[in-house]
Amino acid sequence: MRAHADQLFGARCAPRPDWEDDAACVGDEHFYERDTVTDAVIAHQRRVCGTCTVAADCLLDALAHERVQAGWQVSARGGLLAQERRYLTKDAR
Description:
The chain has helices at residues 2-9, 39-51, 55-64, 82-92. By secondary structure, the chain is mainly alpha-helical.
């Protein structure tokens, strides 16, 4: 997990301004399915994140201030699910 973060971030510690405009998930209604998070939904989220040019920015944003709106805790951000992000922040301490 730590290697994943190091590979994405390099020396960066904050997301670039306006990174959300370039996110691959923008407009993808299936990415944000929150009512039924199945293995298929998670696999779709990971595929989308895998093609995203701003995945590192998204993950940095999530690690800096996890969204508190309903559903963000189950969505992949930067290719990682909420429990993986929690592990990463715990590992970094």
